[in-house]
## 1
Amino acid sequence: DIQMTQSPSSLSASVGDRVNITCRASQGISNFLAWYQQKPGKVPKLLIYAASTLEPGVPSRFSGFGSGTDFTLSIGSLQPEDFAIYFCQKYGSVPLTFGGGTTVEIK
Amino acid sequence: QVHLVQSGPEVKKPGSSVKVSCKASGGTFSNYGISWVRQAPGQGLEWMGGIIPVFGSANYAQKWQGRVTITADESTSSAYMELTSLRSDDTAVYYCATHGISSSANYFGFWGQGTLVTVSS
């Protein structure tokens, strides 16, 4: 099975900072990579699919890039509502696998 | 826009089984698949398996083979996840989520509200 490794597992940042979260696949997955945001006690929300395609309604400060094994979620200017946990997910062939998550906390 | 409504919280004894339902509205049930994703307290997301109702057969993560059964009923636009031989470490929130039929689109666009299953003697 393909394993997904996210880093860092947590980070502290200030409002207005640029934040990058990385996700590495143990084998190449083309661009079959999605990113989700989950706030405490809430349901995960799809942000990005196909590595770089923004889901409608997601603010443009979110962006994704990468292909093959290495992917990045970037938040251009962190807003108070962005403090949450972010998960990557590999799709395409089963099993569908999530990364371990990255907690973005307020500095 | 698809709206998923799951059944309510459950408290179960070790060794018993639980069946969680997920009813869809909006969209066309035959146009997407439904997967089940588990989240233990304070932990990450874990795909358990999924089904494409129009095809009928389910896929499961190897970890869950033999202990989980996922079914769907097109007549009621509902999906079900049954987990047997429950253990205390099965205590978690179980989500249903929709995904595309094609493997190039099986990311999760819409999610149910989650069902907390607590396993305790």
Note: Chain B touches chain A at residues 35, 37, 44-47, 50, 59, 61-62, 95, 97, 99, 103-109, 111-114 (CB under 8 Å).
## 2
Amino acid sequence: GAGVSQSPSNKVTEKGKDVELRCDPISGHTALYWYRQSLGQGLEFLIYFQGNSAPDKSGLPSDRFSAERTGGSVSTLTIQRTQQEDSAVYLCASSLVRQNNQPQHFGDGTRLSIL
Amino acid sequence: DQQVKQNSPSLSVQEGRISILNCDYTNSMFDYFLWYKKYPAEGPTFLISISSIKDKNEDGRFTVFLNKSAKHLSLHIVPSQPGDSAVYFCAATVASNTGKLIFGQGTTLQVKP
């Protein structure tokens, strides 16, 4: 497809397990962002990647969260030893370049539920 | 510390009338403001943006107004249509040009036929 693709669309796991979420950005987009939306809240920035530059990890809530982007395309967000407060919708977005006037295109998200 | 605030969780309007969604912010270093629309189980979709050096931007039925002195912006939808029913998020970017979006909590708009 032409849009941002995320998988899985839903993930239910037990507390303490590790999870991995995947994002395929729009082809040719060099900037990739991860956000999460907790119940009743707005979207919260987690991390972004721009080309080969060092990622901005300033939004990651704890060291249990990490992300990587291989080959400047696909990105994975990993949450280790999941906690119930990690339950949220995790959204990935991409834009042509990392610039403030470039609209970001979002995937449909991964709904993560921690039991 | 909520830098972008949407104080109305919900809004209901009649089809054909104007919808006005409001957003307040605290950071004077924001340089772009954007509105996104979100349907259930889908990702947000970009609607319209405005630079901090402008006070109005219009695109079809959508107009965004920016009042920098009041640190307030609003999205006007005229005329409102039932398909506009969704959650609307206000977002802003900081002038460091990272593209990182800071979102408000969202306002759920319901347009009644």
Note: The two ends of chain A are 32 Å apart (CA to CA).
